Backbone:
């Protein structure tokens, strides 16, 4: 097992570049004062230490428990208990997920017509249903390609029928469901089920739970919008961009919110895993102790991480977004988006978790570095182009629907062994750093442009971030399939 120092070094190596980049842009072009700059540095330190504690706690406390649950479910060969456990876990972790809370609150602030509780419930139900299907797929060795094709086909059809202003919200809801708590639990359960299912000989088939989980909210949120009678006439409640300032008051406010969000995430999950550990896994006292230490470290790390991100990174990103529109920097917005897209992925916790799991299952044939670079390049391109197109007033939320169609075509052309990894990557790319930095900047730009642009395009960038790794890794999968056919594959 890796040491705490190993995690600290990795976090500094991956997170410092985007931290320094944001600090430089904000200081030089937007402007700051000594107090704000000192608080920004403090937020960077909080992110570095919190990120390290979070990853280390996940590794020792959550991943082993989730994997044991998956193994036990497959050993018992009983489908009904498996479906119940997967559904309960998915509902609890989704409702408690900080990204879901922040996203739903943001939507409710901008659009009163979208009920906060109904939005959260729609997201949770979508995740729960799709995760049951994902677990059954692994257990029964069903075709992942077929399930994804059916799911994305529903998304495209519904997207042409529902009000356009719910589309961006629905698209982004699929990304925010897979956050720092959800990812390790789902991936560990998927790996456990995949390793123990006797009819599944390919360990790479254990991936795909996160990808399928992201499809559910796309469908259920669009259905909620249609059934709730949300109209195309819906307009945002905010008529101008609201930008938080980096201050002691902001830091205190977001610390309190981070504590509440984290307790709401960690405690229900801890309680559920403890019940499962005692009555389902029949774990020892040592198992409870190790899980407790890991969960505590995860919780403390998340509080520090979210406090730093929401108090420092989000206000700086909003300020930069307002500056870009006010200054009319043109094509430079694209270059800024290209850089941000790659740096955010390099700093994303869930991408590291996915990479390490892929590296382990593939026996180092596909490395964490390869996964990070391919995902980073895809997100970089999508974010850069998306920000520029939106800044010029050319963006339409309907542009995202053809990308889903392209994903379906690429899906059937790529190598089967990478399908699960590819669609899991779409979920892990949209974590706290993506929401905090890119979504905040994108929303601030849309609000500055105002009118129909703000109404239609305030949301949707998270969907682009989720689709980017799907497209880029699908292309890699096609390349690998061609190489394998020529018997000269080198990953």
Residues:
């Amino acid at each position: 097992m890796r040491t705490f120092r190993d995690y600290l070094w990795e976090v500094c190596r991956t997170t410092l570049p985007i931290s320094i980049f944001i600090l430089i842009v904000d200081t030089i072009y937007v402007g700051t004062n000594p107090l704000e700059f000192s608080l920004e540095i403090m937020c960077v330190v909080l992110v570095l230490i919190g990120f390290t504690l979070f990853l280390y706690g996940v590794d020792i406390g959550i991943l082993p428990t989730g994997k044991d649950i998956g193994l036990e479910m497959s050993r018992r060969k009983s489908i009904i208990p498996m479906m119940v456990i997967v559904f309960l876990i998915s509902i609890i972790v989704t409702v408690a997920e900080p990204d879901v809370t922040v996203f739903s609150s943001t939507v409710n602030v901008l659009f009163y017509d979208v009920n906060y509780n109904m939005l959260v419930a729609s997201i949770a139900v979508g995740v729960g249903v799709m995760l049951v299907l994902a677990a059954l797929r692994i257990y029964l060795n069903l075709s992942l390609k077929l399930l994804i094709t059916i799911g994305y086909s529903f998304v495209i059809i519904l997207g042409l029928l529902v009000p356009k202003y719910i589309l961006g919200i629905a698209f982004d809801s699929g990304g925010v469901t897979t956050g720092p708590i959800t990812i390790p639990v789902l991936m560990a359960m998927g790996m456990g089920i995949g390793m123990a299912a006797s009819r599944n000989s390919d360990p790479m088939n254990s991936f795909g739970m996160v990808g399928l989980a992201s499809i559910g909210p796309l469908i259920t949120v669009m259905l909620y919008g249609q059934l709730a009678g949300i109209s195309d006439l819906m307009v945002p409640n905010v008529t101008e961009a609201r930008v938080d300032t980096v201050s002691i008051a902001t830091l205190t406010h977001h610390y309190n919110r981070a504590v509440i969000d984290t307790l709401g995430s960690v405690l229900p999950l801890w309680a559920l895993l403890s019940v499962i550990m005692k009555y389902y896994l029949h774990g020892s006292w040592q198992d409870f102790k190790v899980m407790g230490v890991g969960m505590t470290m995860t919780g403390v790390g998340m509080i520090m991480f979210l406090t730093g991100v929401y108090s420092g990174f989000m206000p700086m990103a909003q300020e930069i977004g307002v500056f870009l529109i006010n200054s009319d920097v043109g094509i430079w917005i694209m270059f800024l988006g290209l850089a941000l897209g790659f740096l955010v992925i390099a700093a994303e916790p869930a991408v590291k978790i996915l990479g390490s799991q892929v590296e382990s299952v593939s026996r180092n044939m596909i490395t964490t570095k390869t996964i990070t670079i391919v995902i980073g390049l895809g997100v970089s391109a999508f974010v850069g182009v998306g920000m520029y197109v939106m800044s010029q007033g050319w963006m339409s939320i309907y542009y995202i629907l053809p990308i889903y169609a392209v994903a379906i075509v690429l899906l059937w052309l790529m190598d089967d062994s990478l399908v699960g990894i590819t669609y899991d990557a779409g979920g892990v790319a949209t974590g706290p750093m993506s929401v905090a930095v890119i979504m905040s900047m994108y929303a601030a730009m849309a609000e500055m442009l105002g009118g129909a642009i703000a109404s239609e395009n305030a949301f949707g960038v998270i969907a682009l971030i989720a689709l980017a790794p799907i497209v880029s890794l699908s292309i890699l999968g096609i390349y690998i399939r061609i190489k394998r056919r020529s018997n000269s594959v080198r990953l």
